[in-house]
Amino acid sequence: MNAPLTDDKSRRWLIFRQLAPYFAKSVTAEFLQKTSKFLPDIERIHPLFEGIYKPAWSDFALAIRSVIDNPYDDEIHDLPDGRWWIKYSPKTGGMEIAQNVALLNCMKNHEPVIVLRQEAKGSGRGPTRYRLLGLGLIQEYEADSELFVIHGVDLATLESVCAELPENETIATVLRTEVLTPFIPFVQEERAVYRTSTEKRDAAFRSVVLDQYGHTCAVTGMRFRSSRATEAQAAHIIPKKEHGSDDPRNGMSLSRSMHWTLDRGI
Predict the structure, then answer these.
(1) Which residues are in the HNH nuclease domain (predicted)?
(2) For each of the chain's 266 residues, which pLDDT tens digit applies?
């Protein structure tokens, strides 16, 4: 049985803080596989057998790696200011595989993952080496390209963001991942997302649907948005009064007049 969630996260963050001096530096494969030889409180960062490492004690992925001869479609982008972001492939075999679920858990819970990039293969000139890029937050999973989008972030900023993260944003992240599962048209009360307050869930649904449509009415093409208001509204295709779900696929962006028309079946 995995550790309670709070213990799981606490253990991960202890690892992140101890690794902070090594971020953006080159390390050997031995450092990653046998980390306890260098940092006694950490058993390993990554066994390097495959791309995604999910420790047995955790519900989350601890680290991912991208190798030189990569069979996947990973893309690492280095920015001029030293920051980076990556598009990363899930493990082949389906999103229900434990490693992929562990990455989805990171995305849903805004938990960071350690990102490694292979720099050199082992040879007579030296051991296999990896750049320990640092921590990344998974922003989204692109269903079309089947890639996770991960942005690098420094530890201090990350701790601040995670401490102050609004519950609405957490709910919105859960709703965004609905596209990875079969469409559920009607509310399932037993699901955790429906045990949150209606007000918070409505705000998250509105945020996700309007983002998907670019705050543009799907019928008229009208778009008006200012810092204080937007013309578009998030409408449920199967109405809430008929127990229509908050799956974003049950939503569309409509102008106020078109929303009124839809609700009245005109």
Answers:
(1) 217-265
(2) 444 555 788 889 889 988 988 998 999 999 999 999 999 889 999 999 899 999 999 999 999 999 888 777 888 888 887 789 999 999 998 899 999 999 999 998 888 999 999 998 877 677 889 999 999 989 888 888 889 999 888 766 666 545 544 455 566 666 765 665 667 788 876 565 666 677 778 888 888 898 888 889 999 988 876 656 677 899 999 998 888 888 888 999 999 889 988 888 87
Residue type, 10: S
User: Can you read off the two tokens belonging to residue 205?
Assistant: 């649904």
Q: How far apart are CA 129 and CA 265, in angstroms?
A: 63
One-letter identity of residue 54: K
- Report pTM: 0.61
